[in-house]
Design a protein that fits this description.
This protein is mainly alpha-helical. The protein is about 60% helix and about 0% strand.
Length: about 70
């Protein structure tokens, strides 16, 4: 059985699109999530890292989508 694997680059591209479509800005989301540094968000958007489950939950609430709608799997 093959299990889904998260595609970090695809997920980052998807997060960028969801942020834009929600009318938010990256800077605004960074502030609303309480991230200490914008570089964390930019690492997510470039697919260099993935947000932790707590930030995924907060992001899903902020964007009005489910966590599954944020993550891209392959």
């Amino acid at each position: 059985m093959n299990y889904p694997v998260i595609d970090p680059v695809g997920t980052g591209m998807n997060m960028k699109s969801l942020i834009k479509n929600s009318g938010n800005t990256v800077a605004g989301v960074v502030r609303l999530l309480g991230l200490a540094d914008r570089s964390t968000m930019y690492k997510w958007l470039r697919g260099e890292a993935l947000p932790g489950i707590d930030n995924l939950l907060a992001l899903s609430n902020l964007l009005g989508v489910s966590i599954n709608d944020i993550l891209v799997t392959r």
